Amino acid sequence: xxxxxxxxxxxxxxxxxxxxxxxxxxxxxxxxxxxxxxxxxxxxxxxxxxxxxxxxxxxxxxxxxxxxxxxxxxxxxxxxxxxxxxxxxxxxxxxxxxxxxxxxxxxxxxxxxxxxxxxxxxxxxxxxxxxxxxxxxxxxxxxxxxxxxxxxxxxxxxxxxxxxxxxxxxxxxxxxxxxxxxxxxxxx
Length: 188
What we know:
Distance between the termini: 47 Å
Shape: elongated
Order of helices and strands: HHHHHEHHE
Number of strands: 2
Strand content: under 5%
Structural class: mainly alpha
């Protein structure tokens, strides 16, 4: 799966510079020390897990860069990756395959954030489309009828319930929270 790398904003670039500077202060361990720490962490040694965290923070940044999408702050991906890292180190059962397990946990948490954000955005787009359809229906009906329209007329025209029309109107701020009677004109 090849993906064109997204361009980072100035704010994201600055965040990464500061984060990378912080990572430089983290004590690095040799591959042999890392294997030993993985073995100890898998045996339940929490201190070994804490020491291993520094070994994988660079991996979190690499994964965040790889998975980054426009509209999602890279710092949020890094935060989720760090959560994945913590989960992985806390649930490590064996040194065998530990490296791949940790990387997959890091990416899983980042992908979860991406999915949640995408789902929210799809919902936002659907609601925007419903508001636009409502506005178009009201405009069309007002032109056809030469007057302000009623709630039930809009509902009928859109093929939705009056309650759905009320909900959309509340979102637009065009309708007060108190109920509008079916015979009341809608003014947008």
